[in-house]
């Protein structure tokens, strides 16, 4: 059965092959613009943010500044990473959904079940992204809180790794599932039932997103890999009843 990293490699080759390459340009441009804007914003404000948060440290904890400073930087990096991810996917969702449709036709020989027009698909894709946000943001906020609780925060790195993999799996596997009329709740059920392919795929996509600039060109391949994973692992699972 197709494993996640083989799917990512095959998906990347697929989207840059003849016939699909032209559908990759728009999401790359969108990601690049968001990437540049966010990098500029962070670099312009990092110093003031750091001064503000360090000024909030009580005097009796001043001796812990050597620990608080790197924790702040790490939290900022994580916040920027997740914000960049969420923003780019909101903007690029219609393009990724369209790319997933074309990949499914090219890779499997059959079109998705979706019979919506292009305009309605684009509008619905944005709505689906809002559903993802409503699911992801509370869990992300809870993890940030856990990361600052003594003793409990020792498990934070593992929890962040698992959450990142789960979030990326939900984000990218949702494109082919939405195209095939799988509800968000049913998608989560299918992903949980095949937890190892889900987390290994999401983990692979997470690694890709951490590659500066290169991720702009590799993420369309992750969309294609999501289509391959959908076809190989989740398509034949029974639909949710009730």
Automatic annotation (TrEMBL):
Annotated signal sequence is: none
Give the record's GO biological process terms: cysteine biosynthetic process; sulfate assimilation
Q: Write down what this protein is called.
A: Sulfate transporter CysZ
Q: Which family does it belong to?
A: Belongs to the CysZ family.
Briefly state the protein's biological role.
High affinity, high specificity proton-dependent sulfate transporter, which mediates sulfate uptake. Provides the sulfur source for the cysteine synthesis pathway.
Key words of the record? Amino-acid biosynthesis, Cell inner membrane, Cell membrane, Cysteine biosynthesis, Membrane, Sulfate transport, Transmembrane, Transmembrane helix, Transport
Q: What is the lineage of its organism?
A: Bacteria, Pseudomonadati, Pseudomonadota, Gammaproteobacteria, Oceanospirillales
The membrane topology noted for this protein in its Swiss-Prot or TrEMBL record is: Multi-pass membrane protein
Annotated Gene Ontology cellular component terms: plasma membrane
Identify the Pfam families for this entry: EI24
Which spans are transmembrane here?
23-46, 66-92, 217-234
């Amino acid at each position: 059965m197709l494993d996640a990293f083989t799917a990512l490699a095959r998906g990347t080759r697929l989207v840059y092959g003849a016939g699909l390459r032209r559908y990759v340009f728009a999401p790359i441009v969108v990601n690049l613009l968001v990437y540049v804007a966010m990098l500029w914003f962070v670099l312009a404000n990092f110093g003031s943010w750091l001064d503000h948060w360090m000024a909030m440290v009580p005097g009796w904890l001043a001796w812990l500044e050597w620990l608080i400073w790197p924790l702040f930087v790490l939290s900022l990096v994580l916040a920027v990473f997740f914000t960049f991810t969420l923003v780019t996917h909101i903007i690029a969702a219609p393009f990724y959904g369209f790319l997933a449709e074309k990949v499914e036709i090219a890779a499997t020989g059959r079109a998705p079940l979706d019979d919506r027009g292009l305009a309605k698909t684009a509008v619905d894709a944005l709505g689906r992204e809002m559903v993802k946000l409503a699911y992801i943001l509370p869990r992300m906020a809870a993890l940030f809180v856990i990361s600052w609780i003594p003793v409990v925060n020792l498990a934070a790195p593992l929890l962040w790794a698992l959450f990142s993999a789960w979030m990326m799996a939900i984000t990218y596997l949702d494109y082919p599932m939405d195209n095939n009329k799988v509800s968000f709740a049913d998608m989560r059920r299918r992903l949980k039932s095949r937890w190892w392919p889900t987390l290994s795929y999401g983990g692979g996509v997470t690694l890709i997103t951490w590659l500066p600039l290169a991720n702009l060109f590799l993420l369309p391949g992750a969309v294609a890999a999501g289509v391959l994973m959908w076809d190989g692992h989740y398509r034949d699972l029974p639909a949710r009843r009730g």
